[in-house]
Design brief:
This protein is an all-alpha fold.
Length: 495
């Protein structure tokens, strides 16, 4: 079941909302959310629910046990006893991390790792571990809820969070269906307190903002992301034409942004209908002026998670320059690996790590601001950073070396047309028109959002009634006439 499916919009969500608000007790409402979440997740594949449940059971009881040891540490114990308690805490945390990372590695990386480390002599395979997995599909969203449940036990270990509520509240936190599959990645200290307390029926104002979030997300997905997905496929089919590679990369850059941010919008809007606030996951990322700025704007919940649970524990920037460089590369290596099992995902992560290091050594944006002033410094810094990001999306999109080389070659040949526009092919004209048609509205809304330091969807509350009606009608008719007829899964479902 997907957010943009008929079953979800017109059956699943209305039924869950009705059942939810018919119950007046917080516990009963959470039970309904648990049932709904497991139904949503296991739709067509029931075994996935068992895996999610097993992971939740392990982490809940480990977190509970760590918390008990935390309380014991506050008692006036001897040093020997204190050391033993700390050892138990560490062992419990290690077990939690090993269990969750083990599940993630098995389901997500097993096939890739066995391909990489396949042992053969003279063309004869002598050790093939692939059959042990029986080619089980990767559970959707496993990377997201793995990080979410890991932060739960880690925060308890660090004494930054105390378990709130019982087991069923925790299940609701892990499996909360609006953000289960593709985030945002929530921390227990932010989400669990909202689920424990009684949530009143949302006001008409909140419901209106939630409905617009959902509508805008659906609009971005159906009109922009999916149509750009078709355009990427057409570019791939005509990649032998000079210049088409550049259109492909730009189209994919906006496709993945519209697709992922659309999911986040729908997730935030859906959660808001249940009286729950999810964190923002995007903030005009393509207006970033440097790599650090980009990661403060793109997939904010993941980048902040990796910063707090990977980068800072490695030592962060409070160390020597050489160690800091190592920390950045290791962190972004993990970031790339988190996204998928493949060499190009790893290269994508390392590339972003190198960008972070480059701007630490040579702050290009600061130099441009100093030389060109605020306006042109920002414009030029944004253009350069966007160019770097485009290359990273080429790495991310490529399925192999052939895709990468061919697309890069085609993109580089766009320069042939600068001196002689008559050389532009009909194919390039058509693809360029399609690209302009679907990214120009996004660019306009992003400019508006950037101008007010918000997302465009947040500006909705400032519109008058007539403007809102016109906007809804416009989105409705555009979805009917320009919405993609071929549906794509959300890209980040595979992660």
């Amino acid at each position: 079941m997907h957010f943009h499916s008929f079953n979800y919009i017109f059956i699943f969500l209305p039924v869950v909302l009705i059942l939810y608000y018919l119950n007046k007790k917080s516990f009963n409402r959470n039970i309904i959310l648990i049932i709904a979440s497991y139904t949503f997740y296991a739709w067509g594949n029931p075994y996935l629910a068992l895996m999610l449940l097993s992971s939740s059971i392990v982490d809940f009881f480990i977190g509970k046990k760590i918390h008990e040891h935390n309380v014991n540490l506050q008692l006036p114990n001897e040093n020997i006893i204190t050391k033993k308690i700390n050892q138990k805490r560490k062992l419990l945390l290690i077990f939690s991390i090993a269990f969750n990372i083990g599940l993630l590695a098995f389901f997500k990386y097993w096939d890739w790792l066995t391909e990489v480390f396949l042992i053969s002599i003279g063309g004869h395979v002598i050790l093939d571990l692939r059959p042990f997995k029986h080619h089980i599909d990767v559970p959707p969203g496993i990377s997201f809820y793995t990080f979410q449940t890991l932060s739960y036990t880690i925060d308890i270990y660090r004494r930054q969070f105390s378990p709130k509520g019982g087991f069923f509240n925790y299940l609701t936190f892990v499996a909360f269906f609006p953000q289960l599959i593709a985030g945002p990645i929530e921390r227990a200290k932010d989400l669990l307190p909202q689920l424990v307390k009684f949530r009143k029926r949302v006001s008409s104002k909140v419901a209106e903002s939630a409905c617009f979030l959902i509508s805008w997300g659906l609009f971005k997905k159906v009109v922009f992301a999916d149509n750009l997905g078709h355009l990427v496929e057409r570019c791939q089919e005509n990649i032998e034409h000079p210049g088409v590679g550049l259109i492909l990369v730009i189209a994919f850059a906006f496709q993945i942004y519209c697709d992922f941010s659309a999911y986040s919008d729908i997730a935030r809007g859906t959660a808001r209908l249940f009286g729950v606030r999810l964190k923002r996951n995007f903030l005009t990322p393509y207006f970033a002026i440097n790599p650090s700025d980009f990661w403060k704007r793109w997939h904010i919940s993941l980048s902040s998670w990796v910063r707090d649970y990977v980068y800072i524990p490695f030592g962060g920037n409070r160390c020597s320059k050489s160690r800091n460089i190592t920390n950045l590369l290791l962190t972004m290596f993990i970031m790339g690996l988190w996204h998928g099992a493949g060499v190009f995902f790893v290269l994508w992560g390392i590339y972003h790590g190198l960008l972070l290091i480059l701007y630490r050594i040579l702050p290009i944006d600061k130099y441009l601001f100093k030389k060109l002033g605020n306006l042109w410094g920002r414009v030029s810094s944004t253009f350069i950073m966007f160019s770097f990001i485009l290359f990273s999306w080429l790495l991310f999109w490529s399925k192999g070396i052939a895709d990468f080389v061919q697309t890069l070659q085609s993109a580089s040949e766009i320069g042939y047309f600068i001196t002689d526009l008559s050389k532009i092919s009909t194919v390039l004209y058509e693809l360029s028109f399609g690209l302009t048609l679907f990214i120009l509205p996004i660019i306009i809304t992003e400019i508006i959002g950037f101008r007010y330091k918000r997302e465009f969807v947040d500006i909705y509350k400032f519109f008058g009634t007539n403007t809102k009606i016109i906007l809804y009608l416009l989105m409705f008719y555009i979805m009917i006439f320009f919405g993609s007829r071929g549906s794509y899964d959300f890209i980040y479902f595979q992660f």
